[in-house]
Each structure stands twice: as structure tokens, then as C-alpha cells.
Amino acid sequence: ISHFSSKTRGGEDPPTHPHPLYHIYARSNLRPVASSFDLRFPLTQHNITMADEAPPAAAPAPAAAGTGAKPEKKEKKAPPKDLVIPPKKPKLSKAERRALQEAQRAAKAAGGGGKKGGGGGGAGKGGKKKVDVHKGEAGSGGAGGGSSRKAAAAAAAPAVDPSMDKSLPSFSHLQQYRDPKHFEEEFSGISLGASNSVQNFHPAVLSLGMQYASGTIRGGNARAKAMLRTFQQVIRDYEPPAPSSSSSSSSRGGGKEDDVRHDLDHRIIKPAFQYWTTKCRPHSVSMGNAFTFLKLAVASLDRDMSVEEVKEILVDTIDAYIHERIDIADEAICKHGSSKIVDGDVILTYGCSSVVEVLLTDAAQEKGADTFRVIVVDSRPLLEGRALVARLADAGIECTYILLNALSYVMMREVTKVFLGAAALMSDGSVLSRVGTACVALMARSNNIPVLVCCETYKISNRVQLESITVNELGNPDDVISARCAMNGAASTAADGKQIDSVLGNWRDMPNLKVLSLLYDLTPSEFVSGIVTEMGILPATSVAVLLREMNPQDTNTAFMGSM
User: Fold this and answer.
1) Alpha carbon distance 312, 319 (integer Å)
2) pTM
3) Which helix (H) or strand (E) holds 551?
4) pLDDT at res. 501
5) Statement: residue 131 has pLDDT above 90
6) What DSSP string describes 250-261?
7) Residue 373 backbone dihedrals phi, psi, to 5 degrees
8) How many Å apart are CA 348 and CA 399, to the nearest integer?
9) Do strands 372-378 and 530-533 pair parallel, antiparallel, or not at all (unpaired)?
10) How far is CA 363 from the centre of its chain?
11) Backbone φ and ψ of 496, nearest 5°
12) DSSP 192-231
């Protein structure tokens, strides 16, 4: 091609060339941009130009700065004269937002919550002034909206738990601990008996809520059993509502108001569960799964059943669930777990797990109490391991009691196996349990000691959790700074018999001090050697398979979380 380029410029006839574009190029007025070109790059419109074609005209240069010419600017349209632009709403802190919500709830309850028009647009008589005061954030756009919100927050500030504004920002999304001492009316049910109240609960529901909030009932199994037993009592005392005139004049079969299943679900079961979880304490995974089972049991009832038949079937169904999914499951777990205990074992456990306690006592009765030894690791503020050590010692088992800070000294020298309890199992095999469990599992993993987690299958959650911050529960911050055991209230005493007060007793008055009381942590599946369930001992990676086999109808949603 280089030879072709030089010959054509001299006026000679170009020689024959095998390339198909050679003759086309020689007979036309095309000329290459460069002196030579490579056949690897085909001739296109971008690398050739016509000989008679003038180069494109250059773009007009911008006007010189000295000429004084300025580009025209588009004039902004003025807003209409009748348009009112509201001012920006002031931002409220988290404590002020909570105080505002509490004030709105109190105003709704005091002014008769049945006046639905008063909350939205002030249509109800007598409640218009209260609505205007507490509805500043959703006002009509006046400048007084922000001031009314501030006034409402300041007026309701004394009703807020003092510990709410002392939470850490990383855990501010969690439901804050509500001390029953600061919300006596809500927990006692006095305000719930007012006219036009949202719900009048059964006394058993209020009693259980107080026990949840005060920590009298702890543990996944204990909380789920107490909830189901309370529902049994409520169902036994259930009376259907009297049929209204509209429903009596309707066609035979009635509507939802005549359906016992609908009334039980929406008036009895669901409001009670919401009261426990929102007012008292967030529900555990075991409570959530048991509640879901009860709702399905109510929905599967025949519509034509009488009220007495519905009561009998639901009570028997709850008994069967407790017996099969908790009691028999614990017996099977004990059988599978005790098979791993051999003579001379030193078993370590953490806290107080009911299923681990039954496993150890059954193994002592079957193999002899002198065949193995137990080390119970405990931690503040609950110190739950004290009760476990006392019961194991009464069963004749040799025990050692240590705190969590001494774990490394006994783990590397004596321990041969670790048995732990669980509050929930995630679908990826991670274990949610009392705070400190991850430390124990990590230390065992570093010393090549097997870790067996004992957990019933009804505690399996379809969620996937990677850390302990997104989903967790906050406890009473006073338990952390207290010098006494938060479990039984046994105060520390000095030599003269006087009670020792905590140095941080006035921590709420210290502006630079925040107290965190987390109840759970997450143990990754890599630190778990096996999961002991009623189905057998499984690897942590098989939890998702077990969940899919137990709930085949939820296969498509097995890995979709909700909390």
C-alpha cells in the first residue's frame, strides 16, 4: 500500500493489487489523510476525505471580553401572588418526637379517642383546641406549627422515661426499655378501662405483660409457654359479641362480624400480642412462631362450629403444641446431647439455659453424677448462672462457678465440650442468644473445643442476620450500674450491714455518660460445631434445609426477613 501511495502521487498508473479496495481507491478522487495507511483498519468515512471537499468551517469564536456583549439570561418567573409558601419545619430530637407521640396518645385517650374527625381535621366538637395544639407538625402551614410542636413536647416531657434520651446513637433504632415504675397506669391497665378506649384486655393479659416488663419471666421457652397458657385462659373466658341489628337483618350466614374466627383474631388474640410487644417487651422468635401457629389454628377452624367447639379445639391445639414442640423436643434434645458426654468430660455452659439444665441432669442420672464435671460461666447484670449452679449441685453434679472475665484460664486447660442454649436460630446457621455467648464460642473455637448449641426447631427464624446491632433488645440500664444482682435483687452489703450504693447511681444527671444494656448477641455459624435439635445433631449450615423441610409452603419466602 505504501508503494501504491507513492506511485499515484507521481502520476503513474497504479499496479494491480489483490486487495478489493485497491482499484476503487485508485479510480476515485479519494486521498488518504496520512501518507500511508494500514489495511488492518478499513477505509471509512472517518479516515478518508474527498479531494474537492472543503474542510468544515470552524465554529464561531466567542465574543471578546472587551466588546461588552453579555449572554442573555432567562428571566425567572415570579410565583403567583396568591401562593403561600410555608416555612420549613424545625427538626425535633428523638426524645422530643417520642414525647410528642406520648402527648398525642394521651390527648386522644383523654378527649375520647372515638372522635375520629378531631385528630385529622378538627371536625369534632370540644376537641378542636387540643388537636390544634398537638397537631403542629401536620398543621396547615402557619408559622405557629413548629412552636406548637415544641410546646407539646415540653408539656409531655415529664411522662417520658428518663433513660430514653441517654441511648447511644448506634442503638437508637431499637425499642427503648420501658420501666414499669414510670408507666404504672399503662402496665396496670387503669387507663385501659376508660370509656372509648381502644381495647379492654383480659386481666391475665395485663398480668403477663407486667411479668414480661419486670423480667419475672425470662427465657424463650418460658415466655412462649406463658403466652400460650394465657391465651388458653382468655379463650376459655371468651364470649362472642352480641349480634347487631344490621347483622341480624342481613342474609343467613352473616358477614365478618358474625364470624367467631374473625372476632377471636382481631379483638382478642392480635390486640393482646400487640400490647405485649409494644408496651411491655419486644417478642422473642419463639413467641412470634407460637403466635403465628395460633393464628393459623384459628383460621383453619370451620365457620359453622359453635363457640364451645371452637374453645375446646383451640385449647387442645395449644396443649398439643406445647407438648410436642417444647416438652417432647427437649426430651429428644437431651437424648441426642447426652450421647456426646463421655467419662471424664469437663463441660462448660454459659448462663442458664433450661434445655441444657435438663440435658445435664438427665445425663447425671443415666451415666452417674461423678462421670463428668460442669463449669458454669456467668456474667452481670443478671447473673442467671447462680440458679443453675445451685440446681446442678443439688443433683449431685460437681460444679465450678466462674465469671466471664476468667473464661480464658479454664477454657484452655480443662474444658472438653461446650453446651450452649439459644434464643433463636437464623436461617444461615447463626445463633442468637444471651449477650456473651459469642465470646464463649469464639474462645472455644480458638482452643479447638467443640461447641454444641441446644435449640428446639420452633425457634428457627427465616431471617438472616449478620450482626447484633440491627436486631436486638435493650434491657434496663439501671441493672448495669447497680451494685446488686438484677435477677433476684440481692444487694451487696458492707461489713457494718449497710447497703452499698452504686458509684454511678446518678448516671442520668451526667451529661457525658450513656449506659448500654444489650440482652443478645449473634454467634456466627463458623463458631458452632453442631446444632442439637429434636431431629438430631445437625451442622449449622443445614438450618436452612431444616427450615425448608419443616415449612414447605414457605419455600419462596424462606430467606426473606421481616423482626
Assistant:
1) 11
2) 0.68
3) none
4) 57
5) no
6) S-TT--GGG-HH
7) -125, 150
8) 10
9) unpaired
10) 36
11) -85, 5
12) GGSTT-S----HHHHHHHHHHHHTSS-SHHHHHHHHHHHH
Question: Considering only CA atoms, which of 361, 355, 390 is closest in space to residue 376?
Answer: 390
In which band, very low, low, confident or very high, does the pLDDT at 68 lie, cut at 50, 70 and 90? low
DSSP state of 44: -
What's residue 199's pLDDT?
Answer: 61
Indicate the burial class of 265 (C-beta count within 10 angstroms; 0-12, 13-18, 19 or more). Answer: middle
pLDDT digits (tens, 9 = 90+) for 43-61: 444 444 444 445 555 555 5
How far is CA 450 from its chain centroid? 29
Please state, in angstroms and rounded to a whole number, the distance separating the CA atoms of residues 137 and 100.
10
Q: Are strands 536-538 and 530-533 parallel, antiparallel or unpaired?
A: antiparallel
The neighbouring-strand residues paired with 420 are 453
Distances from the Cα of 49 to the Cα of 7, 53, 56, 378, 511, angstroms: 19, 7, 11, 87, 79
Give the separation between CA 330 and CA 323, rounded to whole angstroms.
Answer: 10
Phi, psi of 562 (to 5 degrees): -135, -70
Residues 6+ apart with CB under 8 A from 471: 463, 465, 563
DSSP state of 483: S
The amino acid sitting at 35 is: S
Helix (H, G, I), strand (E, B) or coil at 402: strand
Tell me the pLDDT tens digit for each residue of 283-311.
999 999 999 999 999 999 998 899 999 99
Grid cell, residue 546, equals 431444616
Q: Measured between alpha carbons, how far is 395 from 159 in angstroms, rounded to an integer?
A: 48
User: According to the 3-state scheme, what is the secondary structure of 291-354?
Assistant: HHHHHHHHHCCCCCCCHHHHHHHHHHHHHHHHHHHHHHHHHHHHHHHHCCCCCCEEEEEECCCH
Q: Three cell numbers at 392?
A: 446442678
Residue 220 CA from chain centroid, whole number: 16
User: CA-CA distance, 437 to 284, in Å (whole number)?
Assistant: 17
